[in-house]
Amino acid sequence: MIKNKDVPVYLFTGFLESGKTKFIQETLEDRRFGKGERTLLLVCEEGEEEYAPDQFAGKDTFIRVLESEDELTRDNLSRFLAETKAQRVLVEYNGMWMLDRLYNEMPEGWVVYQEFFFADASTFISYNANMRQLVYDKLKSCELAVFNRFNGTMDKMEFHKIVRGASRRADIAYEYVGGKVEYDDIEDPLPFDLEADIIDIGDDDYAVWYRDMSEEPDKYENKTVRFKCNAVVHSKIPAGCFLVGRHMMTCCADDIQFAGLVCQWEKAAEVKNKSWMILTARINFKRHKAYAGKGPVLSFVDMEYCEAPEQPVAAF
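Above: the chain's sequence. Below: its structure in token form.
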């Protein structure tokens, strides 16, 4: 085990028979993948396709299988690394397990370097309709989503929208039977004008704006925005500040939570608690003296009370 150094983790997610094993096998057969590092291959589900270790480019790849989620523990992962003396880890993750379980159990020093999601295009839409929370869980942090077994009768936009509902950063690839690969080139412009003096966020665009601001904060530094929000005032918020935001559904009804921002205003105490307002404010990503938290702080410019939006819960 390498001490005082990160252990790179390459994470492959997706559901059973989605193509993960084939891709990992081909990766380990490629001599360009690494320089002879000792590799731990952690297999969290076994499908019809099996690994052929004798075809790996390097001979220092060690396979360990987890038969159940209960075996995914920090002690087991640390033990596997110690007994194999591996310098890097590849994880074929079980699509039915939430990723938080892996993140919470990873030993100190394990760092996810790359994350890929694989799906059988012929079943993905059905999976998303019936197990949206599991699909969203795998898409939200992946760098590349690969839809294999794709064919010309399928609508790329349908797949594109599902991925973009979880992440605006992930690249998308469509792999056809026969090996042809096409990368998604659908333009995905933001539904508001970032160059406007005041950026108007539509009632249906709060979730997109909130996520984009979280992912690319530099774009919003010192920008002025106007949006409809719910105002919250209570004793836990510092004097001269109040909370604004909307409840947001990221993947399903069980995942609704308040996506809020701190707004500073000397008259914050006069704000009506739980009222709806159209707020105009300036965004800054620096800590305010009255607020020790991380993230953006809004500086009040103007407001007017209003009715709740037609759909109070924001969604993608």
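Residues 223 and 283 are 6 Å apart (CA to CA).
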